[in-house]
């Protein structure tokens, strides 16, 4: 068959190459596959049946605390409690307990006493424990415990022993956890009671010493339910009052500045006096003077409609208004200055030595933290006491230990097939390495990797009857390009039957062209152009490399490559 081959892409498996590899190595691959199959088969001859049994339990997630509608109060202590009782609250923990040596070492000792075979064989715990599987049924809190053994009579006793040991462990473990928790919280409560009393005593003594006792009452304790103790920074009443007095003095200063600037403006004096009277303090005398001035203004308006500006009644009213306005100005200014002095005195009385307020706040925070933590510890002590009253096993047996009626499938056929496949793959690897070492040409792709772009005509030995037909069509194309005689180099081919047969067919199709066969590279290079004949499994890649190196140096050309394939 005449073919024009193209390079296979790197990411595509060429099935033709694989087929040819298997075909030419079929005998050896069969041997390797048979050896692999026999090896696995011999191991199965003495294979003993494996039996399996199982039981299932429901693991209930036991609550670590009792809801009292006030979870925010037990943040820090709840964390401590959860850490202590964590092994009883977590489903995964129960699974690990069943798989732990704490349980299974006891069962291992039991099986050694129950069946002397184990002790006589010296089976180690790490090997035996591989027979036990503890897994959750997907999507449920049901644990499935399975045990496999080649000795059928051991299955049920071992499963019953696992169930028994776990039951003993889970009950005693939970009781011990609760006892440890109660003891722990008792000690902590006693400790923080003393600490809270001491903190409050220090706070009271300090408040009494620095005249802060009324503040202690106003800031007795922060809100027990909502306080964030980490960021607690109370604002004391003394600080609030100091701020109020400072702001009041600042406001009075601005009013004094404003009233002085409007001294000659009677209307402004009246309005400012009214504002001061409303904002700072009610003064009846100032209010009566404002009323007198307003009455004089009304009279002036009425008289000006009757008399002229220079009339004696008009001038008398203006003098009265001026007198009362000056008096109101002086009274208002005096009132403001008196209020300013009073506020300064109040501010002075609220001063404390440097560091007193800061120390007081720190003592208040410390006392608050101690009382809050004491309250939480007492809450948790009550929670654990309730847990002790309602204690129960964290699991429930839902199936009794049972033995499967049939042994575990041994999958002999599957293992034999795997042995066959393993032998085949091992043989393939060895033969691939062998072929690489031999460095022979096996496919047209081997040729194209060294001499790309040169036409390759593939002649399959199985299709010899069609060779003459193929050569006829090839000769038509070659005759147009050739003139004179030409040489065909048979590369590393000892048996010249196929090359001579091909040359004979070519020559029968040419009239003025004759092709002769040679095994000598030197003789082939005497012509500028020549044919190259390669036979699978005979021709060498090294020889092809030598030809490639000389082609460019001697300016020679290979017209076509004749590839004789199996």
Account of the protein in words:
With 566 residues, the chain is an alpha/beta fold. 61% of the residues lie in helices and 10% in strands. It has helices at residues 15-24, 26-45, 75-84, 86-89, 91-99, 101-114, 116-121, 125-128, 155-209, 213-218, 237-261, 266-279, 284-304, 312-349, 356-389, 412-438, 444-450, 467-479, 497-509, 521-524, 541-554, and strands at 51-59, 132-136, 142-149, 395-397, 402-403, 456-460, 486-491, 515-518, 529-535, 557-565. The strands form two sheets. Strands 1, 2, 3, 4 and 5 form a five-stranded antiparallel β-sheet that branches. Strands 6-10-9-7-8 form a five-stranded parallel β-sheet, with helices on both faces. Strand 2 and strand 3 (142-149) form a beta hairpin. Helix 9 runs antiparallel to helix 15 (356-389), helix 12 (266-279) packs antiparallel against helix 13 and helix 18 (467-479) packs across helix 19. The chain is elongated. The chain starts with 14 loop residues before the first helix and ends with a strand. Residues 1-11, 62-81, 83-89 and 214-231 have low confidence and may be disordered.
Give a summary of the structure in a few sentences.
This protein is an alpha/beta fold and 566 residues long. It is built from 21 helices and 10 strands.
Shape: elongated
User: How would you state the average pLDDT, rounded?
Assistant: 76
Number of helices in the DSSP assignment: 21
Question: What radius of gyration results from the CA coordinates?
Answer: 55 Å
- First-last Cα distance: 11 Å
Structural class: alpha/beta
Q: Can you tell me the residue ranges where pLDDT is under 50 for at least 5 consecutive residues?
A: 1-11, 62-81, 83-89, 214-231
The helix content is: 55-70%
Strand content: 5-15%
Tell me about the largest β-sheet: 5 strands, antiparallel
The total of beta strands comes to 10
């Amino acid at each position: 068959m005449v073919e024009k081959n193209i390079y296979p892409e790197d990411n595509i498996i060429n099935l033709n190459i694989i087929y040819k590899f298997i075909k030419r190595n079929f005998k050896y691959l069969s041997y390797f596959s048979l050896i692999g199959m026999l090896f696995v088969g011999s191991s199965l001859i003495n294979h003993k049946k494996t039996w399996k049994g199982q039981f299932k339990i429901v693991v209930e997630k036991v609550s670590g605390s009792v809801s009292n509608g006030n979870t925010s109060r037990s943040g820090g202590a709840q964390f401590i409690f959860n850490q202590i009782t964590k092994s009883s609250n977590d489903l995964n923990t129960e699974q690990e307990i069943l798989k732990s040596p704490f349980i299974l070492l006891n069962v291992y000792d039991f099986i050694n006493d129950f069946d002397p075979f184990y002790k006589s064989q010296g089976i180690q715990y790490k090997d035996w424990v591989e027979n036990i599987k503890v897994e959750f049924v997907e999507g449920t809190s049901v644990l499935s415990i399975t045990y496999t053994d080649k000795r059928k009579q051991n299955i049920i006793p071992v499963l019953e022993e696992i169930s028994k040991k776990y039951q003993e462990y889970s009950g005693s473990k939970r009781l011990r956890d609760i006892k440890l928790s109660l003891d722990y919280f008792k000690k902590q409560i006693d400790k923080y009671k003393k600490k809270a009393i001491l903190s409050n005593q220090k706070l009271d003594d300090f408040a009494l010493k620095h005249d802060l006792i009324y503040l202690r009452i106003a800031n007795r304790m922060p809100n027990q339910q909502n306080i964030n103790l980490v960021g607690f920074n109370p604002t004391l009443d003394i600080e609030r009052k100091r701020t109020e007095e400072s702001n009041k003095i600042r406001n009075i200063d601005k009013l004094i500045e404003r009233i002085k600037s409007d001294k000659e403006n009677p209307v402004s004096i009246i309005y400012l006096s009214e504002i001061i009277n409303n904002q700072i303090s009610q003064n009846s005398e100032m209010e009566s003077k404002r009323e007198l001035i307003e009455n004089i203004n009304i009279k002036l308006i009425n008289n000006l409609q009757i008399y002229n500006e220079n009339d004696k009644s008009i001038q008398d009213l203006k003098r009265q208004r001026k007198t009362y306005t000056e008096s109101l100005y002086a009274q208002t200014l005096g009132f403001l200055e008196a209020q300013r002095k009073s506020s300064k005195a109040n501010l002075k009385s609220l001063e404390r030595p440097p560091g007193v307020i800061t120390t007081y706040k720190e003592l208040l925070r410390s006392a608050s933290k101690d009382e809050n933590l004491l309250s939480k510890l007492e809450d948790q002590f009550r929670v654990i006491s309730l847990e002790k009253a309602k204690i129960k096993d964290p699991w429930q047996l839902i199936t009794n230990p049972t033995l499967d009626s049939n042994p575990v499938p041994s999958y002999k056929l599957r293992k034999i097939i795997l042995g066959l496949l393993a032998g085949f793959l091992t043989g393939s690897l060895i033969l691939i390495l062998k072929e690489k070492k031999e460095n022979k040409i096996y496919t047209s792709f081997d040729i194209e990797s060294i001499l790309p772009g040169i036409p390759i005509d593939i002649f399959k030995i199985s299709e010899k009857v069609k060779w003459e037909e193929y050569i006829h069509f090839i000769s038509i194309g070659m005759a147009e390009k050739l003139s004179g005689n030409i040489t065909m180099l048979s590369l590393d081919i000892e048996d010249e039957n196929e090359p001579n047969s091909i040359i004979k067919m070519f020559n029968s199709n040419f009239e003025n062209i004759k092709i002769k066969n040679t095994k000598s590279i030197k003789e082939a290079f005497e012509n500028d152009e020549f044919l190259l004949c390669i036979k699978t499994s005979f021709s060498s890649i090294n020889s092809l490399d030598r030809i490639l190196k000389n082609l460019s140096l001697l300016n020679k050309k290979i017209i076509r490559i004749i590839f004789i394939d199996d």
